[in-house]
Amino acid sequence: MVVREVGLLFRGFTLVKKSYHKTSMGKIDPDLRSGLLTAILNFAQSTFSKDMVEYFEGKKYTIAFTEDQIIAEDSFEPELIISYAILDKEKKIEKYIRKIIQPLLKQMSKEFKSLNSGKNLSEISQFKDFKQNLDKIFGTDTETIEQKLKRLF
Questions:
Q1: Tell me: the pLDDT tens digits for 12-66?
Q2: Is 38 exposed, middle or buried (0-12, 13-18, 19+ CB in 10 A)?
Q3: Which of 39, 67, 70, 74 sits CB 3.0–4.6 Å from 81 for a disulfide?
Q4: Domain map of the chain by residue range?
Q5: Sign of the C-alpha dihedral computed for residues 39, 81, 72 and 136 taken in this order
Q6: Ramachandran region of residue 92, left (φ > 0), alpha (ψ -120 to 50) or beta?
């Protein structure tokens, strides 16, 4: 199982993202993609149930996510922040997502909140250094089998 990309979404925009392996051939506008992911998630939750939707499965990839709340500088109420991970689609992925990926996504959200709660979240360049935290959180889950073997030998 390979984590290809992880990130945090807020108000339909990407606050921080780290791509470990390409997931598309062409260049996709990150704001358009973030808005689409947020809209799909909100639609699924309003159509079904807030606690029922944990991941989406496609032909090649699975997108897992968790939600949390963060207070921005320009807001009096906590607002939704979405942590997501794009993974290779594999059989029996549900257990892997629940036991490994979702706790990592929650940890990512928790660390981000502890560093940035109450800040101006619209200035995205300030979160560039947080990518190093993502590397520590997800570690070897971002490596392909070939990369893991190469590292061992």
A1: 899 998 888 776 655 777 778 788 888 888 787 777 766 667 888 888 889 998 9
A2: buried
A3: 70
A4: 3-152
A5: negative
A6: left
Contact predicate 105/97, CB 8 Å: no
Phi, psi of 70, rounded to the nearest 5 degrees: -140, 150
Q: What is the pLDDT of residues 64-108, one digit of tens each?
A: 989 899 999 988 899 989 999 999 888 888 888 999 899 999 999
- CA-closest candidate to residue 55, choices 17, 101, 16: 101
Task: Provide the 10 A C-beta neighbour count for residue 91.
Answer: 5
pTM of the predicted protein model: 0.84
Structure tokens at 128: 């560039």
CATH C-level class of 3-152: alpha beta
pLDDT for the residue 41: 80
